[in-house]
Structures are given as C-alpha cells and as structure tokens.
Amino acid sequence: MNTKKKLKSNGLVAVATLLVVAVVAVLLAGTAVAEEVRGGAVFEDDFESGDLSSWNIVSGEWEVVAEGENQVAHLTRSSEKYRRAVSKTTVPDGVVITAKVKGDATGDVADMGIGFYADSNASKFYFVGLGYGDHLDIRYIDPLIGKEVLVENQDVVQRNNVWYNVKIHLTNGDIHTRVWEVGEAEPADWQLSYSGATIYGNHILIGTEYGQNNEEFWFDDVRVLSEMISVSTDRENYTIGETVLMTLAINRSEEYPRVMQLELGLKKPCDDEDLLYQSGAFTMPAEFKWNATVPFPIPYTFWIPSGEYCFIGTLRDPTTGEEIASDRACFEIDDNPWIKTGEEKLRGSSSGLLELELP
What is the distance between the alpha carbons of residues 203 and 189, in angstroms, rounded to a whole number? Predict the structure, then answer.
C-alpha cells in the first residue's frame, strides 16, 4: 500500500489560484439534489494508534500489524465462523463508507466483508462481500431468517493478496457499492445496488462471513462520511453515472465582450496531479453579458466527501488555447464571498456557487 495521505474533514474548503479575467459563477441549477455538504467524517480508523480501541471484537483473533509504512487491522486464520468486529461508534443513515481490504486464502479466494446497518453485537447486519464465489455481492445475516445473497455481480472478481478500495453509499435502506484495486481508477458506475434493506442498527463492521482455517484478512482506512457535496440537476430523475445537465451562470463585465472557454477542475489540496474531476471546455460566446446561463454536461459519477478541496478554474482563448490569467479568486459560500490572492481556506458549507473575480 502507499503511504497514507490524510484528508482533513474539518469543514474547510480550499481554493487554489484561479486563472480568470471575468466574474464567473458556476451554479448547480434545478431542484433535484443528489448530495449535501454539512459535515465530515463521523467515524474513521486508520489503525495508526496501534490498537483496535474503536471496535468491539465480537469473534475471531484480531491484531494491529505493520504493512509497509502503515498500521493495519489483521484478522488471523481460524475455523470460527462469522469473525467480525463492530464499531463502538454509531453512525447515521445517509452516509458513505470507504475502506481498504485485503484477503488471502490457500486454495480459495478469501471472503472479506464490510458490514453496515448492524445491531450493537453484530448479530444482524447487511454487508458487501468480496471473494465469495470470487465475485462481489450484497448479503445479509439475520439469525431468524438465515443468510441470503441479495444481489451479485460476477464480473467484479477479487484476487488474493491484493488491496481493494470499497465504497458503499447508504440512504434509507438503499445500498450502492463499487470496488476497485488500490492504485487503479475508481469505476464510474455503481457495480451493485439494492433497495429496501432493513435497518437493524446503526453500527458498521469488518470481518468475514465464513470460518475457514485457510483465510486471513487485513483492513485499513475505514471511514464513514456523513454528507456529500451538493449536486443539483435540471430534472428530477437521473441515473448514477450518466451525463446530466447543469447550468453555468456567467457574470461578465461589459469590458470583456469576447469569446472564452472555461475549464473546471476539482482536486485535493497539495495534490498537483490527481484531479477528482476535470471538465471539458465550455464555450462562452461574446454576446453573453450579465447573468446569462447555458446548459452543459457534467458527468455525475462519484460522491465527493466533504472536507478540504481546491477548485481550479481556467479561462482560455479558444483560438490559441492560451490561458487568460488572473491572480485574484473569489469563492462564495452561503452568500459570503472570500477573496485572497493564492490559496484561501474557507469556512462553511458549499452553496454550489463558485465565483471567479477580476483583479
């Protein structure tokens, strides 16, 4: 695994220097809101403390071990079934769970699980399973009912001794999940979805469903993110992963009646390479003056955790491709503008309005 990069979840939003020469507002238009930003991580454990103090060990032999430069939770080989640890912290509904998992098995593929909607002793819960039949599934366990595979995707195959990212979105019993190898690009679409889960409780868990002496497991960077960045569309219904229309509202000075192209990017602070989102070029005709709007497609393919980010806006001459530069940027949060040369950290929740201002 790579050395951890801590993503702060302190309600701050960072703004990088924005290359602009006009006042530009990016408004997420419409009434359908896919996500909201209000808070950050409600639970997180990277096991760097060297212990499992955030978890109640229900069954199995657990320890914290070194994995390269990181500390990770290790579930040892055992014939004991349903080996699992459940979070001491309760988490609300409407969250995203993220984790890194790895398993190893002799003559088989290790059956790893990230559980949720669990009661306090993890007797009843739902979980995303990796490795059962070598593929991805969503299952539940209830002593009164038994165990059942609800949905599965046989095209998503796991391998032994490989770290995987797991992302699970939960809202009112609706479950969406995707899994991908650490170091690879996150899939654009959810790989499995299920609606109508019974909410047995408000705990999460890590572990395995089966008890086989040939299996062991590792877990790292387990996080529960409370709410997400707001995304509004121009219609009520859409499919996760498709292109949806949003509205670009342009506030332009009369002094700049020229065609320009706007590109938008979103990245983590101090990360010059890995963009979470990079738009194409949006052409802004010269006749657009104040408060003009134009629809443009933007791929809605992921949930962005609340926290600290850099929004990057670049205006270009569409003929030469050269940047039209400025050293002043304004990011407006809940109608309160903040202006500073360079990178500015901002307080508050995002209203979806990004404003770039002339020096």
Answer: 26
Q: What is the pLDDT of residue 171?
A: 79
Looking at residue 120, the DSSP 8-state letter turns out to be T
For the beta carbon of residue 268, count every other beta carbon within 10 angstroms. 16
pTM: 0.56
* Secondary structure of residue 303 in the 3-state scheme: coil
Q: Which residues pair with 26 in a beta bridge?
A: 248, 354
CA-closest candidate to residue 208, choices 120, 78, 121, 48: 78
| β-pairing verdict for 323-324 and 310-316 | antiparallel
Instruction: Single out the residue of 298, 203, 281, 184 nearest to residue 245, CA to CA.
Output: 298
Lowest mean pLDDT among 167-171, 317-321, 328-332: 328-332
Locate the domains of the chain by residue range: 12-38+229-356, 41-225
CA 307, 311, 312: angle at the middle one, nearest 5? 155
- Location of structure tokens 């403390």: 49
The architecture that CATH gives domain 41-225 is Sandwich (2.60)
Across residues 349-353, what is the average pLDDT? 30
Distance of alpha carbon 112 from alpha carbon 101, whole angstroms: 7
What tokens appear for 340 in the block? 């500073």
208 in Cβ contact with 101 (< 8 Å): no
Question: Which of 159, 142, 163, 141 lies closest to 208, judged by CA?
Answer: 141
Do 84 and 209 touch, CB atoms closer than 8 A? Answer: no
Q: Do 44 and 224 form a contact (C-beta atoms < 8 A)?
A: yes
Q: Which residues, listed in sequence order, are joined to residue 27 by a DSSP beta bridge?
A: 247
Higher pLDDT, 6 or 289: 289
Backbone phi and psi for residue 315, each to the nearest 5 degrees, phi listed first: -100, 135
- Residue in this structure with the two tokens 């949806």, named with its chain if needed: 244
Q: Which residue has the tokens 């992963």?
A: 241
- Identify the band that residue 65 occupies on the pLDDT scale cut at 50, 70 and 90: very high
User: Is-contact 263 296, C-beta < 8 A?
Assistant: no
